[in-house]
């Protein structure tokens, strides 16, 4: 089959990790007889440098007609000036909104051999397998914002809104996923303080009662969830939450498998192409050094094959190859915790070799 895959390498380590994921996809194409057509487009800081716009129209066009999109990361200190007209991150938020990607799936899966890479004790993380559904196109990220006043009276605001429809569609998607797993769903909010969270909680409860009475359902406040994730992570199955809470809790959850460099994600809507990316950022502190872990992006490529192209066997093959290199003891620096490590390209080589 012929597929049109758009690559958005972006900034910092983005180009380094996307290059390895591309090689892995090429190895899959060879092994399974597919024709993957790749095209790379600008997003983020590099797009600002070259066009003045973090999401140029040509990138939007290419994404809209893609079979699927694989993104590296955007952002970095070069574009961090708080008074700048625009920021790299604005490009990422805009492409999510333009494509209607309201659900961000972030699986937290353990590799037994990586138990030593986690800062948590092995007996705590054992058996952890969580699937987060982070709402991605609403909430405080997209709320009205602005500044007024001067001096000590200068004030900034950003409002948080959720509509019933926005909550229903993400809760439904998460509940359906729970039915295909251990049939348990946890909704995370801050309903003791925030009005949008109260609407979220009420709406989620109605959806669950009316449409998913068979799914074991509970609610947890976000501050408490931050603690439970570290204390008893194996108790959770599917977790659904808003945009900002999901962002924060999943970076925290990355310490269960041991590194931010291991966590992939899928951003999907009700139709059209999905966007796949690691959950981590552009890692400016290690960019250009050739030491970034490419596995999150490689695992995101596997999610892309499964969710957008229905190439399940191919996705399984990538995940098996990643598990294989881990069980062979290969580690990038983020996983090695001071022990022997290999670089980004060598890790890519190892995954490609497993797929051959
Ligand atoms: P970050 O995720 O880039 O890095 C946090 C820490 O994790 C750093 O020490 C980094 O070296 C390490 N790390 C991240 N990915 C790694 C990998 N693959 N291998 C090894 N180590 C890895 O977060 P940050 O430093 O807070 O943000 C840097 C920039 O990235 C900011 O501009 C931020 O806005 C942006 N960002 C972008 C995305 C995205 O594009 N989706 C996500 C998060 C942050
Ligand atoms: C992520 C990132 C982004 C987010 C930023 C860069 C806009 O942190 O993908 O998790 O907050 O959604
Ligand atoms: Mn994030």
From TrEMBL:
Record note on quaternary structure: Homodimer.
Pathway assigned in UniProt: Amino-acid biosynthesis; L-leucine biosynthesis; L-leucine from 3-methyl-2-oxobutanoate: step 3/4
Species assigned in the record: Neorhodopirellula pilleata
Positions bearing the site annotation: Important for catalysis: 141, 190
Keyword Oxidoreductase attributed: yes
Pfam families with a match to the protein in the record: Iso_dh
Cofactors, names only: Mn(2+); Mg(2+)
A biological process from GO: L-leucine biosynthetic process
Sites where the protein binds Mg(2+): 223, 247, 251
Binding site for NAD(+): 76-89, 281-293
InterPro entries cross-referenced by the UniProt entry: IsoCit/isopropylmalate_DH_CS, IsoPropMal-DH-like_dom, Isopropylmalate_DH
EC number: 1.1.1.85
GO CC term, one of those recorded: cytosol
Residues at which substrate binds: 96, 106, 134, 223
Details of cofactor binding: Binds 1 Mg(2+) or Mn(2+) ion per subunit.
Enzyme class label: oxidoreductase
Biological function: Catalyzes the oxidation of 3-carboxy-2-hydroxy-4-methylpentanoate (3-isopropylmalate) to 3-carboxy-4-methyl-2-oxopentanoate. The product decarboxylates to 4-methyl-2 oxopentanoate.
Reaction catalyzed: (2R,3S)-3-isopropylmalate + NAD(+) = 4-methyl-2-oxopentanoate + CO2 + NADH
Keywords: Amino-acid biosynthesis, Branched-chain amino acid biosynthesis, Cytoplasm, Leucine biosynthesis, Magnesium, Manganese, Metal-binding, NAD, Oxidoreductase
Family according to the record: Belongs to the isocitrate and isopropylmalate dehydrogenases family. LeuB type 1 subfamily.
Gene3D superfamilies: Isopropylmalate Dehydrogenase (3.40.718.10)
One GO molecular-function entry: NAD binding
NCBIfam families: leuB
SUPFAM superfamilies: Isocitrate/Isopropylmalate dehydrogenase-like
Protein's name in the database: 3-isopropylmalate dehydrogenase
Start and end residues of each Isopropylmalate dehydrogenase-like domain: 4-351
Subcellular location(s) of the protein: Cytoplasm
């Amino acid at each position: 089959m012929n597929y049109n895959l758009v690559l958005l390498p972006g900034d910092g380590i983005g180009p380094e990790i996307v290059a390895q994921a591309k090689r892995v996809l090429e190895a899959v194409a060879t092994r399974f007889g597919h024709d993957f057509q790749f095209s790379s487009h600008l997003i983020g800081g590099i797009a600002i440098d070259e066009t003045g716009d973090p999401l140029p129209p040509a990138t939007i066009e290419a994404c809209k007609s893609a079979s699927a999109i694989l993104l590296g990361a955007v952002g970095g200190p070069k574009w961090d000036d708080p008074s700048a007209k625009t920021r790299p991150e604005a490009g990422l938020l805009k492409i999510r909104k333009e494509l209607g990607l309201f659900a961000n799936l972030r699986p937290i899966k353990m590799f037994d051999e990586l138990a030593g890479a986690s800062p948590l004790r092995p007996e705590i993380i054992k058996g952890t397998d969580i699937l987060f559904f982070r709402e991605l196109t609403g909430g405080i990220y997209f709320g009205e914002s602005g500044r007024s006043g001067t001096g000590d009276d200068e004030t900034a605001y950003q409002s948080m809104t959720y509509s019933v429809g926005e909550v229903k569609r993400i809760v439904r998607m998460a509940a359906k996923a729970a039915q295909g797993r251990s049939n348990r769903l946890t909704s995370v909010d801050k309903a003791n303080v925030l009005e949008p969270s109260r609407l979220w909680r009420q709406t989620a409860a109605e959806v669950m009662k009316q449409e998913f009475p068979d799914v074991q359902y509970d609610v947890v406040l976000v501050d408490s969830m931050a603690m439970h994730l570290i204390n008893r992570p194996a108790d959770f199955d599917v977790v659904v939450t808003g945009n900002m809470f999901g962002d924060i809790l999943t970076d925290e959850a990355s310490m269960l498998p041991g590194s931010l460099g291991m966590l992939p994600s899928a951003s999907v809507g009700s139709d059209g192409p999905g966007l796949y990316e690691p959950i981590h950022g552009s890692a400016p502190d290690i960019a250009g050094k050739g030491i970034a872990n490419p596995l999150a992006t490689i695992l995101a490529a596997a999610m892309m094959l499964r969710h957008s192209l229905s190439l399940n066997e191919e996705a399984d093959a990538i995940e098996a190859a990643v598990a294989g290199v881990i069980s062979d003891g290969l580690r990038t620096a983020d996983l090695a915790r001071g022990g022997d490590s290999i670089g980004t390209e060598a890790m890519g080589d190892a995954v490609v070799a497993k797929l051959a």
